[in-house]
Amino acid sequence: MNFGRATALGTLLLASAGWSGSAMAELGATPEGYAASTVTERLGNDVDPDLSFVDQDGQSVKFGDYLQDGKPVLLTLNYYTCETLCSTQLNGLLQGLQELDWTAGEEFRIVTVSIDPSEGPDVASGKRLSYLEELGRGPDVEWHFLTGTESNVRALADSIGYGYAYDENTGQWAHPAVLTFLAPQGFVARYLYGIIYPPRDLKFALMEASEGRVGSPVEKLVLSCFRYDDSTGEYTPAALGVMRLGGIATLLAMGGLGAVMWRREKSSGQNRSASA
After folding, report:
1. Phi (first) and psi of residue 65, to 5 degrees
2. C-alpha distances in angstroms, 207 versus 70, 167, 174, 224, 230?
3. Which of 77-86, 130-139, 239-248 has the highest mean pLDDT?
4. Which DSSP string do the residues of 18-64 spell out, in sequence order?
5. Does residue 109 surpass a pLDDT of 70?
6. CB under 8 Å to 98, separation ≥6 — which residues?
7. Would you call 147 exposed, middle or buried from its count of C-beta atoms within 10 A (0-12, 13-18, 19+)?
């Protein structure tokens, strides 16, 4: 599979259909299905850690199993046999992860849950394998692909405000394209919308979700210069933060220049003393 080509084609198709952000639903959805595929943001809301699922290896797990070690969770809801929006969104996430200098399992975890209760671990395993191979960071990357009962999947979706519906006319699931970031304690911390996820936005959302537990001091300083724009679902430069960073850079530059001048003056003085 050529993931880059598939993502570009999917983006073009969605753009031509006039869909973007949280309004993107499955291609061909009826108005009823389209209306159901919305996101009602529930920032601060807790996800039930006792919700049961089955992972790609056929093992029974609870969602709380992934809320450990102080790591934030990047959560996506899709379905694995989807060839339109789901694939386009996951391919966009894959491209962002390929450019991200963090790896799932180290600074954070990724959990993808199928909204189709008819899917099982066989299809989840195949999907995970294909994405990990394309990611190119080994088989132990913590990107988990889960399946579950309709009631548990619906409970998870409701807790993060994710709306979806099965469209009888198309035989597809209508749903939005959104990434949900959970804090290590299990509450909703941030959403990113669309089908393209720049690595900078992924990192900033994970840093916010982790409440400062991940990210170097420099990365945290840079994050302070950006703000999350609710209207676009992206991170944009904050004027005050950029001014602050510019001021720090100026002070560092002046300090460096002062140090150079002091060293030159000191060296000149030593040379004059030696000549005398």
Report:
1. -60, -25
2. 12, 37, 30, 11, 17
3. 130-139
4. T--GGG---TT--HHHHHH--B---TTPBP-TT-EEE-TTS-EEEGG
5. yes
6. 135, 136
7. buried
- Of 115-129, 182-196, 256-270, give the lowest mean pLDDT range: 256-270
Q: Confidence class of residue 10 from pLDDT cuts 50, 70 and 90?
A: very low
Q: Assess if residue 250 is contained within a domain.
A: no
Q: Is residue 264 part of a domain?
A: no
Judged by average pLDDT, the poorest of 82-96, 99-113, 186-200, 217-231 is 217-231
How many separate domains does the chain show?
A: 1
CATH number for 56: 3.40.30.10
- Domain carrying residue 24: 3-215
Residue type, 164: Y
Q: What pLDDT, on the 0 to 100 scale, is given for residue 16?
A: 36
Q: Count Cβ atoms within 10 A of the Cβ of residue 168 and give its class: 0-12 exposed, 13-18 middle, 19 or more buried.
A: exposed
Identify whether 103 is part of a domain.
yes
